[in-house]
Amino acid sequence: MRNSQWDRRGRFAGRSGELFAFENGMxxxxxxxxxxxxxxxxxxxxxENVNAGASLRDAAGSVQAKRKQSSWPVFLFIAALVVPWIIxxxxxxxxxxxxxxxxxxxPCVVAWITGKAGRIRLADISLLLCALWPTLSLVxxxxxxxxxxxxGIGFLEAFGAYLLARCYIRDADDFHNAVKLLFGTVLFLMPxxxxxxxxxxxxxxxxxxxxxxxxxxYSHEYRSGFARVQSVxxxxxxxxxxxxxxxxxxxxxxxxxxxxxxxxxxxxIVTSVxxxxxxxxxxxxxxxxxxxxxxxxxxxxxxxxxxILIGLLVCLFVALQSFANRSALTILTSFFIFDPAxxxxxxxxxxxxxxxVANHPIFGLGMNDWERPAWxxxxxxxxxxxxxxxxxxxxxxxxxxxAFFLIVVAVALKKDLDEKLVDYRTGFILxxxxxxxxxxxVAFWGSTYVVFxxxxxxxxxxxxxxxxxxxxxxxxKWIDGSIQGSTTELATGVPxxxxxxSRGSIRGVAGGRC
Length: 514
Fold this sequence. Notes:
The chain is mainly alpha-helical and 514 residues long.
C-alpha cells in the first residue's frame, strides 16, 4: 500500500486514515479484529530479532490452529438428551441427562458465583427464582416431603441446564461446537425417524429398551397413513420441537461462510426430520423459521430489516386486535394446529386454564389436577406458559419470561459485532423465537424442556463478545501487503501474513483492506 506511514505510537496509518496494529500478545491468540475491516491492538515497534520471529511463528500457528473441541460436560449432556434410559435411584427416576446435570451442578454454581462464567446478570437471578418457585409451590400445596424430591428435580432441570450453558459456552467456538453436537443428534435420529414414520415401529426406542428401561411406550397416532414419530422422546410433539429448534442455528452457525448447497442440505435434513413428527406446533415453527431466514437472507444488505419486520408485525397485531372477531393470540395459535377440533379444544384449555390461574394466582395447584368441566377428560395443558402458571402460580412464568426477554433483547441490541457474530446472534434469537411461538400451542417437558433452557443460557456469551480471531482463510483476505525493512526477513509461513524485517524494529506494514 502506498502513501502509508507509522505514527509515533507505532501504529500504522493506511490510506483511509484508519489505524492497523498488531498486539505483542498475539502469540497463542492469533490476530483479532474489533470490527470488520479493522485490525486492532497496539504492538511495540521495538522488537528483538528472535522475539519478533518467534511471535509471528506463534501467530502463524495460532491462525492455522483448529477450532477448539467441545467440553466434555456439554458433549455428555447433549448426547444424553437422545438416550431415553430411565434409571431408578431409590424413589427417584433419573434419565442420563439428569445424571450429567447432577454431577455438574455444584461446579457450575461455584463457577457462576466466583465470576468464572462472566458477571452475574439479572437474567440469571430471574431464572434462579423461576427454578426455585415450583419448590415453594409444592411446599404450600403438598408439604416438604414431595417438595424436596419433585422440586429438586425441577430445579436441576431448569437452573442446572441453563447454568451448564452459561459456564461452558463462553465464546463463538463453544457455541459452534454445541450447535454441531445438536445437529449430530438430529443426524443420529434421522434414519430411525423415517423408518418409524413409514412402518409405525419405534426401532430406536426398542433397541435402547433392550439394555435399560426406557419408560412407558405409547401407541402411535396416524395422519394421512403415516405414523407420528415419537423416537426417543415421550411424545411426537417433543420430538418435533427438539429437532425443529435447531433449524436457524444450523443454517446460520454451521452454515456460516458455507456454500448454498451445504446450507440447504443441512436445512433439508432438519426440516425433513422435524416433519416426521406430523405435529402442527413444531411444523408451524419450522415454517416460521423458514420465513424469517428467508427474510434475513433476501434483505441481508438492509441493516434495518428486523426493525421493518417488527413494525409490520406490530401493525398486523393492532389490526387483528381492532377488527378481527378473535384475539391475535387465538389467530396465531390456529396457525400451529392442523385439526379444527384440536384448535377448539385448545381454546377451552385456555379459557378454563386461565380461570385456574385466577383462582390460584400465587402458588398454583402444585401437582393437583386442574379444574375443568367433566366432559374435558384430557389432563394435559397444551400451552407451555399456561401450564407453568396453572401448576406453580403466576410468578413462575413471569420470572421465566423476564429472564427470556432480558437475554434475548440484550443480545439483539448488542453492538460492535463482526459478521460472524451477527450471524451467530441471529441464529440464537431465531431459535428462541421458535420456542416462544411454539410454546403457546404445546407444552415442553423432559429433554425438550432442558434443551430450551440450555439454549437460552448458551447465548449469554454474546453479551460479552469482543473481537473474534480470524482464521487462516480470512487472513488472506484481510492482509495483503508486506513489511518493509532490510533484505533479511523471517518468513511466517502463513499465506497473506507478511514477513518481518530482521532488524530490531518494525519499520512498516503494507496492506489490510478496509
